[in-house]
Amino acid sequence: QVQLVESGGGLVQAGGSLRLSCAASGRTFSSHAMGWFRQAPGKEREFVAAITWSGSSTHYVDSVKGRFTISRDNAKNTVYLQMNSLRPEDTAVYYCAAGRRSYSNRAYYTQDEYVYWGQGTQVTVSS
């Protein structure tokens, strides 16, 4: 059974940092793009960051550029999201997802490019 399990969420003050992890089990995603998405209360789920299978290319939504960093460790089948300078508007449930295509050199930002999803981890940023 394929599982993506996020961890590392929590409550943090504005300006603080958190590091999210997403561990995959059941199969390896080392040849697939990985992405992070988030959903705030009352809003639709939105793209946050993505990384190609090799880690050579990344893509971010404008609102997190310069503050968030996506990375991966294929040996551990894990993807990370380092979040710095957090803002109250970053409050959301964060989801990781595994892409449907293998060995693509694109860091996809649309949800239909992702086939497996985790259950999410809550990130709350207080002002």
Mean pLDDT rating: 96
End-to-end CA span: 40 Å
Order of H and E elements? EEEEEEEEEEE
Identify the overall geometry: globular
Alpha-carbon Rg, integer:
13 Å
Largest sheet: 7 strands, mixed
The stretches of 5 or more residues where confidence is low (pLDDT under 50) are: none
Number of helices: 0
Helix content: under 10%
- The counted number of beta strands is 11
How big a fraction of the residues is strand? over 45%
- Which structural class should the secondary elements be placed in? mainly beta
Keywords:
4-stranded antiparallel beta sheet; 127 residues; mainly beta
Question: In words, what does this structure look like?
Answer:
The chain has 127 residues and is mostly beta strands. The protein has strands spanning 3-7, 10-13, 18-25, 32-39, 46-51, 58-60, 68-73, 78-83, 92-102, 114-117, 121-126. The strands form two sheets. Strands 2, 4, 5, 6, 9, 10 and 11 form a seven-stranded mixed β-sheet that branches. Strands 1-3-8-7 form a four-stranded antiparallel β-sheet, with no helix packed on it. A hairpin with a 6-residue loop joins β5 and β6 (58-60). The radius of gyration is 13 Å and the shape is globular. The mean pLDDT is 96.
